[in-house]
Design brief:
The strands form two sheets. The protein has a two-stranded antiparallel sheet with strand order 1-2. Strands 3-4 form a two-stranded parallel ribbon. About 25% of the residues are buried. Among the domains are: about 35 residues, no CATH class; about 140 residues, no CATH class. The longest helix has about 45 residues. The protein contains 17 helices and four strands. It has about 375 residues and is mainly α.
Length: about 375
């Protein structure tokens, strides 16, 4: 009669404690295919019987076939195989890689990552990149404002120069650059055209002051073209009336938002933005901000994020580096886990390292949700 695993384990425990009955012994022999058919044998001689009596041995300890007892047969049946050497070597190699990567991760971790301001910044950044929530359809406007704020001095200089310096030589420079911007959007091509068509005009200046003003104007144009949306923003501002006063108002607000705490105090920020709401509305309209967002609340959201971005720019880059290395950690850990899954402890004699937590696991778990978000947005 076949026996199940639970019965088999019970019988095995009885073997080890020398409590197995003859009937149970026969059951085990039958299970392992070791039960011998009875054969006719001569009666033992008195001397043989005496020898057997003088050297008693438990029936489960006697050899069944060959020189192996039932205990040995059963033990061998349940014996766990060792993990193959090549898998152990690979596991050890990966473990060391993971230890090294963990040291790098701990070096990248910044206490700022746990701060509420940074978490707000990263949360909003995600909403912007995913184009969802309260920041839906604001990415283009934020990108343009970001270029404006971080190169605002160049934009102010450009517009101030055009407003204050109106000599014939200056006007030729303005017109030549406007002509280039009307027909080209690639920054490299714009710079080539400026070298070809604008630089020769500098020889027409009669005074050192006029020449320096023109050179600074050209440098400011080149500075703006370095940004991804710089040329687009330059063309937007060129078509705005009273752009000089608009830029000055925005410049003053930007300085406060980026350098003082008002950028992260929503109540104070809302009050300050409302003071130049008409200016911001005009700029946002020219930038193509969606109508449902082109209001005081939408403008506050834009400046709030820009302030957070400015204050957390370095930490944001560090955090991206941390997530990048966590992704590498995840890949190594995945290969380690595959080896462990291939050789489960129920079936194999595994080393202690198979039973230990992976190096850096707690740090990985701390930031895993951000890593999953990056995968969602394809970062």
């Amino acid at each position: 009669m076949p026996i199940d695993n639970a019965q088999l384990e019970r019988l095995l425990s009885l073997v080890k404690t020398a409590q197995l009955t003859q009937e149970e012994f026969d059951v085990l022999q039958s299970h392992f295919g070791l039960l011998k058919k009875p054969t006719s044998q001569p009666l033992p001689s008195p001397e043989t019987a005496k020898a057997e009596t003088s050297a008693p041995s438990s029936f489960w300890q006697k050899p069944i076939f060959g020189n192996k007892s039932l205990v040995e047969k059963v033990s061998n049946y349940f014996a766990k195989q060792p993990v193959p050497p090549y898998s152990l070597d690979r596991y050890t190699q990966l473990w060391k890689q993971l230890e090294t990567k963990t040291i790098t991760l701990k070096g990248l971790e910044n206490r700022k990552f746990s701060g509420q301001e940074f978490l707000d910044f990263f949360r909003i950044r995600i909403l912007i990149d995913l184009n969802m929530g309260t920041f839906k359809n604001l990415k283009d406007t934020i990108d343009l404002f970001e270029v404006m704020l971080f190169s605002l001095e160049s934009f102010v200089l450009i517009n101030e120069t055009e407003f204050l310096y109106r000599s014939p030589s200056q006007l030729k420079v303005y017109e030549a650059i406007a002509e280039i911007l009307d027909h080209h959007t690639d920054s490299t091509e714009i710079l080539l055209q400026m070298k070809k068509n604008v630089t020769p005009l500098l020889k027409d200046f009669k005074t050192e002051e006029g020449l320096n003003v023109a050179k600074n104007y050209i440098l400011a144009i080149k500075e703006v073209t370095r940004y991804k949306n710089g040329i687009k923003l330059l063309n937007i501002l060129r078509n705005l009336n009273s752009r000089y006063s608009l830029l000055l108002s925005t410049f003053n607000l930007a300085q406060e938002v980026l350098t003082q705490p008002i950028g992260t105090d929503l109540e104070v920020l809302e009050k300050r933005v409302s003071e130049i709401e008409e200016t911001i509305y005009t700029l946002c309209s020219a930038m193509g901000m969606p109508k449902n967002q082109n209001n005081l609340l939408g403008h506050v959201k834009v400046f709030h994020f820009l302030a957070l971005d400015y204050r957390n720019k370095n930490a944001g880059n560090e955090f991206k580096a941390l997530l990048g290395d966590l992704k590498k950690w995840e890949k190594i850990a995945g290969e380690l886990q595959n080896i462990k899954d291939t050789y489960p402890p129920n079936d194999y004699e595994v080393p202690d390292s198979f039973k230990q937590d992976l190096p850096g696991l707690s740090l990985y778990q701390k930031y895993q949700r951000f890593l999953n978000i990056r995968k969602t947005i394809g970062a």
